Amino acid sequence: MQENIIIAAKQTPAQVSLSWQQQLSQAIRDPNALCKRLGLNSQWLPGASAGHALFDICVPEAYLARIEPNNPADPLLLQVLPVSDETLTPKGYVLDPLEEAEHRPAKGLIHKYAGRVLLIASPNCAINCRYCFRRHFPYSDNAPSRAQWQEALDYIRNDASIHEAILSGGDPLAASDRQLAWLVAQLESIPHLKRLRIHTRLPVVIPDRVDDALLSWLAATRLQKVVVLHINHANEIDQPVVDACARLKHAGVTLLNQSVLLKGVNDNVPTLATLSERLFEAGVLPYYLHVFDPVQGAAHFDVPDEDAQALVKQLLDHLPGFLMPRLVREIPGKASKTPL
Ligand SMILES: *Cc1c(COP(=O)(O)O)cnc(C)c1O
Ligand code: SF4
After folding, report:
1. What whole-number percentage of the chain has pLDDT above 70?
2. Do 137 and 63 lie in a common domain?
3. Residue ranges lining ligand 2, Cβ < 6 Å
4. Range with lowest mean pLDDT among 114-118, 179-183, 313-317, 328-332
């Protein structure tokens, strides 16, 4: 493992030929290696180690390549570098901010909103975002086997009001294509299901994830397909990401994006305007801008609601309406995301 980290740290763009699984297995998962790779001086190491002890570091090379070395304020670095503030426990920041545990009619299935259900298709992610509201999620309890999926599939089959299945996680595309093709085949055999939606950050983190194996089951399904990417900053959209989006579009996918409003990363008008513009250039429409969920360990990313609302109001002066993301908060117990 240690050896892998060192090899990954020294790799040049020649590693494009690695499969996405190899790229993921060579991701940096060590505070020392991360600081060294990005030329950060040793003052960042204690914080990185303390945060890493609470929620592991994980950053693949393809994402690291978009981070400016030696810049502690880089907006992509801030999303992946643990800091000592993660050890703080301010009031109101909790382990399960969305209280999802209450809406699980079957293993791996969350049914909170009318007409759509969310399936935890993979407990894993290709990157560990420091602000993740699932950073304390009991993942090991939520990765059903094929036999265990039957209960969730029966639940969907028995409720004709459900028209959309949303693959979520973790990151659903961290699952193998064989597993995903199987699950989607089960879903499309349910007559009242119309849409397959996939919420994923993998095409952004490791664009090579959008490979022929993925595209073959995706292009083949009778279900209408929506992929909701998760991009917070225009710097995350490099040419390999643009190319991955083009491959998804070619397979008949509607591409949307959701962002999280994060202090220091994207909480200003020019950054949000540039993000929307760059998304559209890549064929992606902005969907949601989430205010941050109050998860313990990530309070330092919080932008107050009033500031978020003021930002979005100013953003209206800079963008056409169709490039405006909807500012929303997820409030436990509500029948939808709540517009702010
Ligand atoms: C966010 C979410 C959805 C999807 O909501 P949309 O408003 O349709 O994007 C569905 N189920 C759960 C549990 C969710 O958290
Ligand atoms: S990709 Fe999404 S689920 Fe995974 S760590 Fe990042 S925010 Fe969390």
Report:
1. 92
2. no
3. 125, 127-129, 132, 134, 169-171, 201, 230
4. 328-332
